[in-house]
Design brief:
The structure is a single chain. By secondary structure, this protein is mostly beta strands. The strands form 3 sheets. Strands 1, 5, 6, 8, 13, 14, 15, 16 and 20 form a 9-stranded antiparallel beta sheet that branches. A 9-stranded antiparallel beta sheet has the order 2-3-4-7-17-9-10-11-12, with no helix packed on it. The chain has a two-stranded antiparallel ribbon with strand order 18-19. Strand 18 and strand 19 form a beta hairpin. The protein has one domain: Jelly Rolls, CATH 2.60.120.200. The N and C termini lie close together (about 5 Å). Helices cover about 10% and strands about 35% of the residues. This is LamG domain-containing protein. It comes from Paenibacillus nasutitermitis.
Length: about 250
């Protein structure tokens, strides 16, 4: 398959905000394709760009605590919040082994230190008897879930996201539930995926969180680093259907 056509399939899907296929770089920033060419800035040194058999044909290496960010004021369309919030966050990931354990953040607007959580795509949250699955975290309160130390409101799939392999993970929110898809299909888990959540998304206001990729601010420092390759990162302003997600999956593999 022509790799440019793979990127085009994301761009032509209704509701796209931004797609980073890591083909366009300017200085220390990666420029998105689509209606909003937001710039992801390297935050811990330069990241390597490599050839990859997925959408766009490129991926970045986020090993060694590398991560990316866009200041909140520079990406207003990614600041999705309120009772009418709808979105899809998706990425191609190829996880690699690491010496540390714990959850890994892929992308979203999520600051735990300042209690400015909105939405975030994670892997390996390790809550609700989970381990190594993709997870779609949502918050209407910004801080921890009432009655808990941490935020506990998350769609969590059944299938571990295997390391050393390319996988397409998608997180959607349709105003009533958060849902995780793995490799084009709903990764169903009773009670947790889809995860009922009609409460909407927290409004962080002017002091809310930035959009980050590969890490989040928690415990007064940057952490929850994603470890591996990342490609084909896209955000939409609506919850895509399973059929649409399956089509994007099939069109973005080589």
């Amino acid at each position: 398959m022509n790799k440019l056509t793979a990127s085009d399939s994301f761009i032509k899907t209704e509701g796209l905000i931004s797609l980073w296929d890591f083909q366009n770089k300017e200085g220390d920033t990666f420029i998105a394709k689509g209606p909003y060419p937001y710039k992801l800035k390297e935050m811990n040194g330069a990241v390597d760009v490599i050839e990859a058999p997925i959408a766009g044909g490129k991926a970045i290496d986020l090993s060694d605590s590398k991560w990316l960010s866009i200041a909140r004021e520079e990406c207003p369309m990614l600041n999705i919040y309120g009772a009418d919030a709808r979105f899809s966050v998706m990425a191609w990931v190829k996880r690699t082994e690491r010496s540390s354990s714990g959850c890994e953040f892929v992308a979203g607007i999520w600051n735990e230190t300042k209690k400015r959580r909105q939405y975030g795509l994670f892997i390996n949250l390790e809550i609700w008897d989970s381990s190594e699955q993709a997870c779609g975290h949502v918050s209407a309160v910004g801080g921890p879930t009432p009655g808990y130390k941490y935020c506990m409101t998350s769609a969590i799939g059944t299938t571990p996201v295997a390391k050393g392999e390319w996988h397409f993970i998608v997180f959607t929110y349709n105003g009533s539930e958060s849902t995780i898809y793995l490799d084009g299909v709903l990764d169903y888990r009773e009670g947790y995926n889809p995860y009922p959540y009609p409460d909407g998304i927290f409004d962080g206001g002017k002091d809310g969180a930035d959009f980050t990729v590969g890490a989040v601010n928690r415990s007064d420092e940057i952490g929850n680093f994603y470890h591996g390759l990342l490609g084909g990162l896209a955000v939409y302003n609506r919850a895509l259907s399973e059929n649409e997600i399956a089509e994007l999956y099939s069109k973005s593999i080589d």
